[in-house]
Amino acid sequence: MKIKMLAALALAAGNFVALAQTNQPADDWQPAPSNMPGQQYPQVNSEGRVRARLQAPQAQEVQLNISGVKFPMTKDTNGVWLGDSTPQDQGNHYYGLVVDGADVPDPNGAFIFGSGGWHTDVEIPAADQDFYALKNVPHGQLRELLYFGKTSNTTRRCYVYTPPDYDKKPGKRFPVLYLLHGYNENETGWGHQGRAGLIMDNLIAEGKAKPFIIVMENSAINLPPGFVPHGPPPAGGPPRGGRRGGFDFSPFEHALLEDVIPYIDANFRTLADQPHRALAGLSMGGMQTRTIAPAHLDTFSHIGIFSGGSIATNEIKDLNKFKQKVKVVFVSYGSRESGAAGKADVAALKAAGINSVFYESPDTAHEWLTWRRSLHEFAPLLFQKK
Amino acid sequence: MKIKMLAALALAAGNFVALAQTNQPADDWQPAPSNMPGQQYPQVNSEGRVRARLQAPQAQEVQLNISGVKFPMTKDTNGVWLGDSTPQDQGNHYYGLVVDGADVPDPNGAFIFGSGGWHTDVEIPAADQDFYALKNVPHGQLRELLYFGKTSNTTRRCYVYTPPDYDKKPGKRFPVLYLLHGYNENETGWGHQGRAGLIMDNLIAEGKAKPFIIVMENSAINLPPGFVPHGPPPAGGPPRGGRRGGFDFSPFEHALLEDVIPYIDANFRTLADQPHRALAGLSMGGMQTRTIAPAHLDTFSHIGIFSGGSIATNEIKDLNKFKQKVKVVFVSYGSRESGAAGKADVAALKAAGINSVFYESPDTAHEWLTWRRSLHEFAPLLFQKK
User: Across the interface, do B55 and A102 touch by the CB < 8 Å criterion?
Assistant: First the structure.
């Protein structure tokens, strides 16, 4: 009995030591790959911890803040604060510092737009980062366009990825993927933290995806004041999709169909027909996709929904038309999201004879590595018609 | 006598009041035009003052920091700090906040790359801002390119402005301006805070400039470790320009002539000859221009030097060749810089029969409004050969 208790105590003590050891960060810190060249901080280690640094001699308290979770930092005798986070998911994270109660960006950080504004960003190398690595392969171009949209009555800004061949083959026309960002993001997200261009460059170089154009527009639901849709009423009456989950997507739906697509078809060498046009998006962009695409089956043939719900068979008004028009429905989630309903919906779509794919990103949540991987899985499925 | 003294005192008092009044900011604050839509701070007023805001209840001292000059901010009962700068030059300014001694970006600010890193940026509307305003005119594209440069042995990133006509007229070829950034800046500067695209769109729409391509490369003097120029030794021996003012520009000179220009000529519809190729730059980019262009008169015909020195006639090795090859030398400064030597050099170049222009930007220093205006003055002079 006594021996058993001692053994239990020893075991408990052993566990405690092990726990303490895992709380001791691995000492293999490297500057984050998102840093500017030569910038030593923030750093990341092999466990996915983030280490921040700030020179703040007079501050009383400094914390590292990753998506609202705050980690203490401590001051050395030179007034320099250092602090580590717990292990984070691989991929990129918005973060900042809290200096005596003030939420501020890290002066050492690089900046991306997302989560409602400009934020400092730290990238934790992913085990599979090779698929979006910068390689010595032919690269496409990422083009910033400005153009006046009559329907949205404003100058719109949009980014267009043209594949490496685009300027080399002036006689060739290309299919188009319209790729939407999430809530509180904008048209810069996919081309920058989404790594859309590098993902496509690598897939095309390996012969794994057809070259196509990607259009990354601003699909924010709050269009400028005075927005008046000028398009004709849709054939078949008003319900064009429109609302979902409390959001009203109809202003963007008008802009996409009446401003964006006509502008792209008039200014790029597109294959301007339904078989060569895809719609996909992440989070709110996925909700927009599953709202807009099924309501416009004469416009879109390929549908991608990343962390943004799915399409239930009982939501489809005309199953025969859907089967005939839709070449693929792709639904994805991070494994740390609730993707069960999406998986079940995809199984039901398959059972109904619709080409559908479910993808789960390992060990990720509602974050950009989920969506980089989703694009990487989705792109090879596009425009594969024999 | 008494009356005179009283009058003098009254006058002095009046002056004092007037002075106090000018220290009282004009109460016409507006969100800065550089803010994200809907973002109320930072604000600017008609005097060019900047007002910053920070929620920092526990901070002891917060300051507004514009290029190293610090302005006190004061805390209200809700823990919100507000503070105003003195009047600033029109145009954009890098700025930040100091929270209990820590230099941090303003969480309300928009971000630009310059002054050695990412900084928050505030734009004070300029009286002449119409020339770089976003208008409903045909817009060119700003393209981000990635390509492997053999000479620099690295993947290079470059931005290319293509004029509105570029994709509309697939049979047409265009002249090219290579436009260089300053020290501690990078290839994003001209396309973003330099407003190069909008300046050109507006000039072209008004018929004031010929449409041409602009190439904005990274001309940083610190090339990656292991840099080995692979180009053949230049005809006529080693002195190709190379050094100036303590900087060694020869690695970039090799990259420009052996990587950048050949890539652009191979991948864009350029007029790939000396009469249709210009080189210009700001600050260090101006120093690079006046070093590299005169050493390569068979490559460049138009020279623009913005706040970066000038070309003295006695520096020109072969005046006859220079006169024959160079169509324009443009030199500019802000009125708050020391441009006298540049002005004298331009007068001497003119006297020597070389088409030269000096431009002084009113009420600006070594800053982006000087360089936006310089591009606006320089562009109409380019490629005007009958």
Answer: yes
